[in-house]
Amino acid sequence: MQTKILSLLFLFLTLACKSPEPRAPVIKISGQFLKESVIRNNALQKRQEDQIQALIQADTGNTYYSSSNGFWYHYNIKKEDDTITPHFGDLVTFNYNILTLDGKTLYSREEIGDREYAVDQEDLFIGMRKGLKLMKAGETVTFLFPSSVAFGYYGDNEKIGHNIPIKSTVTLQSITPKDDL
């Protein structure tokens, strides 16, 4: 009798140790949301680029350059004789304003003030980070940033709403190489 109980117990334990089977997902994700999001973002980017191109076409007094980083710019003051531009870790002093594409001031130069920035080591929106690296000390440049390289979907939670392209005139006052710091 005891052997039968032990045999049944052994058989029970052997069958109970079966490896678990994965459960089928309750909800299957089709990827449709991501596809729709890509379509919306592409349409938004196209619309903003069209706005910027219309602004460039209307401004016949300036020569605009297209950046490989997704924004456009023109020089208000250009320094031909200087060749030094900021690099990683350099300390730059600059001031700027932020406007809507139609010219409404969101932040004035006075409101922002002069700013010191360690290149690529501090928080600054991507368009400004890339734009400063194109400039030389003493230059003033006007940038046209689509929202994707400005403040993006979230804006700045104050004056800049979500997905707002901006215009910014920047004056780079000085560059201090990181080796001199």
What's this, in brief?
It is built from four helices and eight strands. By secondary structure, the protein is of the alpha+beta class.
Helical content (DSSP H or I, runs of 4+): 25-40%
CATH topology: Chitinase A, domain 3
What is the CATH class? Alpha Beta
Mean model confidence by pLDDT: 91
Taken as a percent bin, the fraction of beta residues is 15-25%
- Rg over CA atoms: 29 Å
Order of helical and strand elements: HHEEEEEHEHEE
Structural class: alpha+beta
Notable features of this structure?
eight-stranded antiparallel beta sheet, Chitinase A, domain 3, alpha+beta, 8 strands, 181 residues, 29% helix
Explain what you see.
The chain has 181 residues and is an alpha+beta fold. The protein has helices at residues 2-16, 32-58, 109-112, 126-132, and strands spanning 65-66, 72-77, 91-96, 98-100, 105-107, 115-118, 140-145, 166-176. Strands 1, 2, 3, 4, 5, 6, 7 and 8 form an eight-stranded antiparallel sheet that branches. The mean pLDDT is 91.
Outline the secondary-structure elements.
Elements: H1 2-16, H2 32-58, E1 65-66, E2 72-77, E3 91-96, E4 98-100, E5 105-107, H3 109-112, E6 115-118, H4 126-132, E7 140-145, E8 166-176
Antiparallel strand pairs: 1-2, 2-7, 3-6, 3-8, 4-5, 4-8, 7-8
